[in-house]
């Protein structure tokens, strides 16, 4: 029997892959509401893959080499190359396997192209929400007779002998501990976004940011492996997000920006090329007055965004305000009239192709069609991307010699990411690719 610690998308995928390989799996999850609270459930559920049958059926030409090129362009080669190659190659088989063998209802997201994506790489379930993705994975896990789920329990330590995993210690809700013998543990416990001292140490620029990920991302899985001498990589790496609506606690889809919207600060000024990436833009918002901004977009963009469930909830909560004219928007939001007038005029001239943007934004979408809309947003830390050093089989590597600790795997936020250091190497989709891709690789490798 193998142990999978953590029932987010990484752990659920790993458990399914291992059980398809006829392994008995004990899936350990401390949070009885993990299907709601884990990062994967909070995510937008966009799963990146290159060359799936699903893409082919919907007329999208793609392959793993193009996906690799997009990832490497964004992270500028700052990654473990063998791991990234393994992930992009696994991406299409993983998505097709989940769709065909486990009933995950993926389709290609063609509504808009994410920053840095040269093809339509994203796959999502119908409501385009992480919650629905996680629900689908849970349904598949519940159907798999070889997976036993132990909810309310947490992995607290690992045992090793002769360089091989020999067991894991788990803690029950009443505080009792039990040592379970096993030769294989897959750590899918996510990163350390909710552990303040580690965030302060590794990502000081985000120490004061709102944390917008799962509450159990406390680094406990990483810590257990560190005690065995595991190495770590890219600990300063994280995904930020520029468009978190704190009134509702929901993420405003970045399609609002990518299809022609802009981000302005509270005086009405833009402060960068919004299309460069929402991750690095989080820090920019935090350096604006009052640490907040507005996304401003038009009716055409609204019609795209309304297809996203979270956006519909933000609208229903009254957090998206509509305005007949740019003047009424400026007045209603209390922007400085001269600043906003200049911004709105520049945007319309950039859209018409009359001038070049001072920040270098090239993709402007069509001229705005009224009404206009605004929604207040903050920058936030979504999840950390640094973690345990792994090889192309998702095996955890020792710090001292880079050799695998036999029987120990890491996937998702518990493993080192593929986005380099800091926030600017994060290509949209790297998170769930690392989670589900490494989970898939780990589960299959454990079963071999
Ligand atoms: C708002 C938001 C939107 C996002 N959108 C996207 C997107 O569209 N596409 C994308 O690619 N990425 C996205 N991401 C990133 C993505 O959600 C994460 O990279 C991914 O969910 C990490 O998956 P995981 O399985 O490693 O972690 P999680 O989904 O957080 O699962 C980890 C699980 O481990 C459990 N756990 C913790 N400690 C222990 C322990 N000691 N023992 C046992 N279990 C433990 C936790 O309770 C949790 O259930 C988004 C993130 C956020 C916050």
Q: What do you see in this structure?
A:
- The structure is a single chain.
- By secondary structure, this protein is α+β, with helices and mostly antiparallel strands.
- The protein has two domains: 2-237 and 385-447, 3-Layer(bba) Sandwich (FAD/NAD(P)-binding domain); 239-380, Flavocytochrome C3, Chain A, domain 1.
- It is 35% helix and 21% strand.
- The chain is built from 16 helices and 21 strands.
- Strands 11, 13, 14, 15, 16, 17 and 18 form a seven-stranded mixed sheet that branches. A six-stranded mixed sheet has the order 6-2-1-10-21-20, with helices on both faces.
- A hairpin with a 2-residue loop joins strand 7 (154-161) and strand 8.
- Helix 1 (9-20) packs parallel to helix 7 (130-143), helix 1 packs parallel to helix 16 and helix 5 packs across helix 6.
- The protein is elongated, with a radius of gyration of 22 Å.
- It starts with a strand and ends with a helix.
- The mean pLDDT is 95.
- CATH-defined superfamily of the largest domain: FAD/NAD(P)-binding domain
Question: What compounds are bound to the protein?
Answer: flavin-adenine dinucleotide
Q: Strand fraction band?
A: 15-25%
Overall form? elongated
What structural class should be given to the helix and strand makeup?
Answer: alpha+beta
Percent helix: 25-40%
Q: Report the CATH architecture of the largest domain.
A: 3-Layer(bba) Sandwich
Q: Average pLDDT across residues?
A: 95
Number of strands: 21
* Number of helices in the DSSP assignment: 16
The top level CATH class name of the largest domain = Alpha Beta
The end-to-end distance, rounded to whole angstroms, is: 14 Å
Pfam families: FAD_binding_2
Keywords: FAD, Flavoprotein, Oxidoreductase
Cofactor: FAD
Protein name: FAD-binding dehydrogenase
């Amino acid at each position: 029997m193998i142990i999978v610690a953590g029932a987010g998308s990484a752990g659920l995928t790993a458990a399914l892959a291992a059980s398809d390989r006829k392994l008995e799996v004990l899936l350990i999850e401390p949070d009885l509401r993990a299907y709601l609270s884990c990062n994967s459930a909070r995510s937008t559920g966009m799963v990146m893959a290159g060359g799936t049958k699903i893409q082919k059926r919907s007329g999208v030409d793609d392959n793993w080499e193009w996906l690799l090129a997009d990832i490497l362009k964004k992270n500028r080669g700052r990654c473990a190359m063998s791991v990234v190659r393994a992930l992009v190659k696994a991406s299409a088989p993983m998505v097709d396997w989940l769709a065909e063998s486990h009933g995950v209802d993926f389709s290609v997201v063609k509504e808009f192209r994410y920053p840095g994506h040269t093809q339509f790489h994203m796959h999502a379930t119908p409501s385009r929400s992480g919650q629905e993705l996680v629900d689908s994975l849970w349904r598949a896990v519940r159907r798999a007779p070889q997976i036993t789920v132990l909810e309310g329990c947490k992995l607290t330590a690992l045992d090793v002998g002769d360089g091989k995993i020999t067991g894991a210690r788990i803690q029950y809700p009443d505080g009792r501990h039990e040592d379970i013998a096993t030769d294989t543990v897959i750590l899918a416990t996510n990163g350390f976004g909710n552990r303040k001292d580690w965030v302060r140490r590794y990502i000081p620029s985000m120490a004061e940011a709102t944390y917008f990920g799962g509450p159990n991302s406390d680094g406990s899985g990483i810590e257990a492996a560190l005690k065995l001498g595991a190495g770590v990589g890219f600990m300063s790496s994280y995904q930020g997000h520029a468009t978190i609506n704190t009134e509702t606690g929901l993420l405003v889809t970045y399609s609002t920006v990518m299809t022609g919207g802009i981000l302005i600060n509270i005086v009405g000024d833009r402060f960068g090329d919004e299309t460069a990436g929402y991750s690095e833009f989080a820090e920019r918002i935090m350096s604006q007055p009052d640490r907040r901004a507005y996304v401003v977009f038009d009716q055409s963009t609204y019609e795209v965004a309304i297809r996203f469930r979270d956006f519909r909830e933000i609208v229903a909560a009254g957090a998206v305000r509509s305005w007949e004219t740019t003047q009424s928007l400026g007045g209603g939001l209390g922007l400085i009239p001269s600043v906003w007038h200049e911004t709105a005029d520049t945007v319309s001239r950039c859209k018409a192709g009359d001038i070049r943007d001072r920040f270098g934004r090239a993709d402007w979408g069509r001229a705005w069609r009224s009404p206009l809309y605004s929604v207040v947003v903050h920058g936030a830390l979504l999840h950390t991307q640094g973690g345990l050093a792994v090889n192309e089989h998702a095996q955890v590597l020792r710090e001292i010699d880079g050799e695998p600790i036999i029987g120990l795997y890491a996937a998702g936020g518990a493993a080192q990411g593929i986005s380099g250091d800091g926030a600017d190497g994060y290509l949209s989709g790297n998170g769930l690719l690392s989670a589900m891709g490494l989970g898939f690789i780990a589960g299959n490798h454990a079963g071999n």
